[in-house]
Amino acid sequence: SPASVAVLNYSSGHLLELAFVARDVPALGYKTYRLAPVAEWPRFESSLRASGHALESRFYRVELDPATGAVTSLYDKVLGREWADAAAEHGFHQVLMRSPVTGEVAAAGDSEIAMGEAGPVLASLVVRGAAPGCPQRAQEITLYDGLKRVDFATRLLKDATPYQELYLAFPFALEGARFRYRAANSVIEPIRDQLPGSNTDAYAAQQWVQAADARGSVTWSSLEAPVVVLGQLWPGYVSQAHHGITPPGYEHPFLRDPAGLGRGHLYSYLTCNNFRTNFSPSQVADLLFRYTLTTDEAGASPAGVGDDLAAPLVPVTLTGPQPGPLEPQASFCRVDAPNVHLLTLKAAEDGDGLILRLAEVEGRETEVTVHLPGWPIGQAVRCNLVEEDEGTLWHDDHAVRVKVGAHGLATVRCRAARCRAARFPPVALWAGY
Questions:
Q1: Domain count of the fold of the chain
Q2: How far apart are CA 114 and CA 91, in angstroms?
Q3: β-pairing, 71-76 with 134-144?
Q4: Residue 309 three-state SS
Q5: Is residue 40 part of a domain?
Q6: Residue among 137, 261, 273 nearest 194 (CA)
Q7: Residue 426: pLDDT over 80
Q8: Are residues 217 and 89 in the same domain?
């Protein structure tokens, strides 16, 4: 889990967490692991190291400011590169509060740093303190022995103080940064892909945001807070009809030149309550915000980053061996092109077969094969979005092939071959044959 429940939520003598890296789990499928007792506690080799305010794996070394808990260094040991901008106005992974009344920004201050998780698979540091508008704050930074990624989690107890904007700062050290982000069935490059005059103060991202320069790229993903501010902390814009207080800089022009986002600084927009319609002017809550990031060389594809965070594996525990026909691991549905995502797998609206909806996300027309091991295909047809048949498609017993246009959608109906047996009886029963 990106956030340790025991550290950030509660502690209990009855709670036991087991962490291991589940590799190569089949797509939309499962993989079985066996938990076996041993006579002696095993020893595992691990690259993870932790000291008072530093954390290290085979991929990264993270250092924290001992006073504030902000990240002062995020060093990529593989690329030999520093990713945290030490000259930034705001600290990395620091909670900020901006007043829409004055425009002034206050940062979280004195903090205590303690060891969180300490095992061979993952290790973490936990920062505790307060923040403006938040009497309690707990932040966890996690590294993994076998995964090149850094996880961040921030839990805030928000008080009732009105008119506060909360942010988390992620100032990456990039030169002439170019941003792009995953939106609804699309990848957008801010400003270049916008209509002139449209809002450039903040963006709503889905699975990931990527910032890159000529030497490398960082891909960042947020689970609970989809709104991001890029480049610097812009004044923000809430329409005249809805904001309660006109903030300083409200009339500023939106950007027209992508160079205006040149600094690789990213701010996660956590809360905003400068509204006079439909929303309360104050927010009181226990809030958890989770993030993950990874770094790579220039030109690296962000495909798949963020999906693990948004759709984590679901553990299911069974006692003892169970009789049954299922294999130790299998996939119920697999797509053979990484740039084509499965959006929908469902029963047809009219009950006639399965509907699959696919999206191409990298701007390349692609012929893709979708494998359905548990569904014997008798007929495959291309449909429109309202599931009207348009033409037959190539298929064999358990696979169908379809062409998806660049940044396009494709909808496929698969009718079952009732005379054939399915590999997965539960799927066969659900299909009604």
A1: 2
A2: 19
A3: unpaired
A4: helix
A5: no
A6: 261
A7: no
A8: yes
Q: Report whether 274 contacts 163 (CB < 8 A).
A: yes
Query: Which of 325-334, 349-358, 422-431 bottoms out in mean pLDDT, i.e. has the lowest?
Result: 422-431
Same domain, 290 and 192: yes
CA atoms within 13 A on the CB side of 405: 4
Collect all residues with Cβ–Cβ distance below 8 Å to 178 and sequence separation of at least 6.
Answer: 189, 211, 212, 213, 258, 261
| Tokens linked to 418 | 């009732």
- The answer to whether residues 371 and 406 touch, using CB atoms and an 8 Å cutoff, is no
* pLDDT at site 12: 54
pLDDT score at 423: 47
CATH code of residue 272: 2.70.98.30
What's the domain range around 357?
331-431
Query: Is residue 325 situated within a structural domain?
Result: no
Long-range Cβ contacts of 77-84 (<8 Å, 24+ apart): 78/148, 79/216, 79/295, 79/296, 79/297, 81/215, 81/216, 81/295, 82/173, 83/172, 83/173, 83/218, 83/295, 84/171, 84/172, 84/173
- Residue 300 · residue 217 · CB < 8 Å: yes
Instruction: Name the DSSP letter for residue 215.
Output: T
For residue 76 the two structure tokens come to 């990529």
Task: Judge if 89 and 28 occupy the same domain.
Answer: yes
The DSSP call for residue 172 is B
Question: What integer is the mean pLDDT of 107-134?
Answer: 93
Residue 322 lies in a domain: no
